[in-house]
Design a protein that fits this description.
Blueprint (H helix, E strand, L loop, with lengths): L1 E8 L2 E8 L1 H18 L12 H31 L9 E6 L6 E8 L13 E4 L6 H14 L2 E4 L11 E10 L2 E14 L9 H5 L7 E7 L13 E15 L5 H7 L5 H35 L6 H15 L10 H34 L6 H14 L4 H7 L3 H23 L1 E4 L5
Parallel strand pairs: 5-11
Antiparallel strand pairs: 1-2, 2-4, 3-4, 6-10, 7-8, 7-10, 9-10
Helix pairs in contact: 1-2, 3-6, 5-6, 6-8, 7-8, 8-11, 9-10, 9-11
Length: 430
């Protein structure tokens, strides 16, 4: 086998691979010998079908399968021999596939950049968490209070008004068929909360207790549920009860009953500590983001488009815009294009950051231990009990463990960098 490597860029290689005719022919002959034992052709006993008959019936299929296997095996061998690791599937172009002439093809691949990362011994970052204000404590306390609201029936009227809590029974229908997940026998909706798309809640105003109505709701094209995306759902609604929101008083009793504290003062202090801890975590995260940004700026290099595409796909799936189309809506299509453009920028930055940390880990001999890998896998399994068996089977494979090890090494490298960086306090104006 002949192998040539052409450097198209620092991260892109074109492999030229050639197999001699005798190797190709030997594989084809072996394929026909195996086929002869399996083939069932009228007029011939198993194992006695002439080669020319097999060629007439299966020639193109045999050749295609043999060529595919030869490419697969020779490509893997070429990567190993030249010590190359592709980050995605190769782009294969067949140049000569006639068995009598041998097999010649090219495989264009992307690899991770082999760079020496520098400039991480002079990093300076700011860190500082904003102090917790009394207003922030008040806001958190109010959110807590709202979560404990009770519905009290309205007795002085029997029609729905803005701000009411309305107990509903409803069924969503499209083209005469009930929509899965768009039905309830008893659900409380706050009128004006925008829990439902407009004009659902507006149409409830004026309805009487026990009254029924049909409310059409047009769902947007980009809605996460394909069952309703871009469609008009007609809700058959019955008002079962009309109530108002009753909120508990914020006092010492509130603190005792709901906050597990001896007094309101103690509850406020508890909330303050929680907000302060959150602010510290946010400050740490922002510091890490700033540090990585410096490293990326100091170490520019080409990033494999295949890795960017993989990261982009993951991000797009996470926010629900992976396969969403505008459906001819120009405004929506423009917005989706804007979102995807921003996602691609973020994907490129994320991949660049990962590669920088990966190289620093290699340069500084930072690695995850087998115990750390096992602990991380245990955390993943605990967080996804329904997927536990599938994930446990996945992590038995060396490649999956290697990916975990790489992520842990990057995390440890970042922690190591933070410990070496000059961290200055960020002052907050009050």
């Amino acid at each position: 086998m002949e192998i040539t490597v052409e450097d198209l860029s620092p991260i892109k290689k074109k492999l030229g691979i050639a197999l001699p005719p005798e190797e190709v022919q030997a594989k084809i002959d072996a394929a026909y010998r195996g086929l002869s034992q399996r083939a069932r052709i009228k007029g011939f006993r198993p194992g006695k079908v002439p080669r020319q008959v097999l060629e007439r019936y299966y020639g193109s299929q045999v050749e295609s399968e043999v060529i595919g296997e030869l490419i697969q095996h020779s490509y893997a061998h070429a990567l190993e021999e030249r010590q190359l690791k592709a980050v995605a599937r190769p782009e294969i172009v067949a140049e000569e596939v006639r068995p009598a002439e041998g097999l010649r093809y090219s495989a264009t691949i992307e690899i991770k950049p082999e760079v020496q990362v520098s400039g991480y011994d002079t990093l300076v970052v700011e860190r500082g968490a904003a102090p917790v204000s009394e207003e922030a404590i008040d806001a958190q306390l109010e959110r807590f209070r709202q979560s404990l609201a009770q519905m009290v029936p309205v007795v002085d009227r029997d029609t729905v008004e803005q701000g009411d809590l309305v107990e509903l029974a409803y069924t969503g229908v499209v083209d005469g068929r009930a929509v899965a997940g768009a039905a309830a026998q008893s659900r409380v909706v706050e009128v004006g909360s925008e829990t439902f798309p407009p004009p659902f809640e507006e149409k409830l105003i004026g309805l009487k207790r026990g009254e029924s109505a049909h409310i059409p709701v047009r769902y947007p094209e980009h809605h996460h549920s394909p069952a309703v995306a871009g469609k008009t759902v007609t809700f058959r609604v019955e008002v079962k009860e009309i109530g108002r929101k009753e909120l508990p008083a914020i006092d010492d009793e509130f603190a005792k009953d709901h906050g597990e504290c001896g007094s309101l003062v103690e509850l406020r202090e508890k909330i303050k500590q929680g907000l302060a801890a959150g602010a510290e975590r946010e400050a740490d995260e922002q510091m890490r983001v700033a540090l990585i940004k410096q490293l990326v700026e100091r170490n520019p290099f080409d990033v494999p488009e295949a890795l960017i595409g993989q990261r982009f796909d993951a991000m797009a799936r996470e926010i629900g815009v992976h396969n969403v189309q505008g459906g001819g809506n120009a405004e929506l299509e423009a917005k989706l294009d804007e979102i995807r453009t921003e996602l691609r920028v973020r994907a490129r930055e994320a991949v660049h950051s990962s590669l920088v940390l990966e190289r620093i880990a290699l340069q500084e001999n930072i690695a995850a231990s087998e115990t750390e890998i096992d602990e991380r896998i245990a955390e993943v399994l605990k967080a996804a009990p329904r997927e536990r068996d599938r994930l446990a089977d996945l992590y038995r494979h060396p490649e999956a463990r290697r990916e975990i090890a790489e992520r842990l090494a990057q995390e440890k490298a970042l922690t190591w960098l933070v410990g070496r960086a000059t961290v200055t306090a960020l002052s907050h104006q009050t």
